[in-house]
Write a structure and sequence with these properties.
FAD/NAD(P)-binding domain; 8-stranded mixed β-sheet; globular; D-Amino Acid Oxidase, Chain A, domain 2; binds flavin-adenine dinucleotide; 2 domains; 27% strand
């Protein structure tokens, strides 16, 4: 099929701001730009009909920190970066809730628990030792009193202790995306799916080429392409795929709220009388370093085992399974990259595994930078 003259030359008008990537960061960046420059022509393009990276495929944790992950992150990054990212996530979550409303994303502050079994009893001891110090820093940074508390009680089998964060909550990923997408549409932002950006040339403005030889013209080009950014520009980002499964509806759900295990490698929550469980990426790190939106049988089998043995305590039917791609630093850095690569060319990417909360801060910081 060839595109018509009209489709190629006139359908998509030149933009003042062209954003590549219709995930949470791309959409919120577009909204913030339109608020700041109401007369500007703001467009967002994505290679898929809607964002199909991480923003519609995540677990819906409104989270900003867990103790083991902080301890682990401090091994790979500076304390300044680690706590700055936690702060950005916390402020981003607040911003997201204030701007779009808890009702419009089914947000519920049910809290989160990081559980420990005999298999990671050393991590529990290390966690308990660190709670006081981490709480003091988070109190200074975020003004939150005693973010983490320890308890030895749990409704789950094999648990020897858990560390709770009562400030975290859960949301409905589909409703959040729909709310932000609809908000962008009503502001007059042009949203175009099915256009994969391949390259660009620039003279005084950008000529952006897509896979069907459609050229988009823009004064500013903004890459909100998260894990896929290194396919366009050379940045310290690698793809980290994550698998998710959702059980059949279960009577008397054994848990409510958010749960983490093994440095956040396993995470689960309740949704519509079902259990959503994700992770186990650590059992096949090489296989899960991938741009392909495919399910990984080895990881899915491990998630099914974990669901049965650690959460529900009996065999359970799995109704949904899928994968999504996160963007992380090559040495596991999780702080986002927000910068101007060259005049009028910007990037906001590398959102890590807690990017829902982070997305609002990143979009705000990027527009402030611009
Ligand atoms: C399985 C999983 C579970 C997660 N769970 C949680 C959670 O519970 N809580 C939490 O806070 N975070 C979670 N995250 C992380 C969070 O979803 C992401 O950090 C966040 O959605 C990133 O948003 P984004 O807009 O930066 O990127 P994305 O949503 O990945 O958007 C990038 C977009 O760019 C598009 N794109 C890429 N290249 C091109 C191109 N060349 N041309 C056109 N379009 C292009 C892609 O199609 C994609 O839609 C999870 C992620 C995964 C994968």
């Amino acid at each position: 099929m060839n595109f018509s003259y009209w489709e190629k030359e006139y359908l998509i008008p030149p933009s003042d701001y062209l954003i590549v990537g219709m995930g949470l960061v791309g959409l919120q960046t577009a909204i913030n730009l339109k608020e700041k420059h109401p007369k500007a022509n703001v467009s967002v393009v994505d290679r898929h009909g809607w964002g199909l990276g991480a923003s519609t495929r995540n677990a819906g944790f409104g989270c900003f920190a867990n103790v083991s992950e902080i301890i682990d992150d401090l091994k790979n990054d500076t304390a300044e970066n680690v706590y700055q990212t936690v702060g950005k996530r916390y402020r981003g979550l607040k911003l997201l809730r204030e701007k779009y409303g808890d009702k419009n994303m089914d947000y519920q502050t049910k809290g989160s628990q990081e559980i420990f079994t005999k298999l990671n009893s050393e991590a529990l001891a290390q966690g308990i030792d660190s709670i006081r110090g981490i709480n003091t820093i988070l109190d200074q940074e975020l003004g939150l009193d005693r973010v983490f508390t320890y308890t030895s009680k749990s409704s789950l089998p094999n648990v020897i202790g858990s560390i709770q964060n009562s400030y975290e909550g859960q949301l409905n990923t589909g409703r959040l995306y729909q709310t932000i997408y609809h908000h962008a549409q009503t502001m007059g932002i042009q949203l175009w799916g099915g256009l994969e950006v391949k390259s660009w040339d620039r003279t005084h403005s950008f000529h952006v080429k897509t896979q069907h030889n459609i050229t988009l013209k823009t004064k500013h080009l903004i890459l909100c392409t998260n894990a896929f950014t290194p396919l366009l520009v050379n940045e310290n980002i690698k793809p980290c795929r994550g698998q998710v499964i959702v059980s059949e509806p279960i009577d008397n759900l054994p848990i409510e709220g958010l749960y983490h295990y093994d440095n956040g490698y396993y995470y689960w929550r309740d949704i519509d009388h079902r259990i959503l469980l994700g992770g186990a990426r650590n059992i096949d790190i090489d296989g899960e370093t991938s741009f392909a939106l495919e399910t990984n049988d080895k990881v899915v089998r491990e998630l099914e085992r974990f669901m049965e043995e650690q959460i529900v305590g009996r065999p359970v039917k799995i109704d949904y399974k899928w994968s999504g791609i996160m963007g992380m630093g090559k040495s596991q850095q999780k702080n986002p990259i927000i910068k101007e690569i060259e005049p009028q060319l910007f990037i906001a990417a590398r959102l890590g595994g807690m990017g829902v909360a982070l997305s609002a801060s990143v979009a705000e910081d990027l527009v402030n930078l611009m």
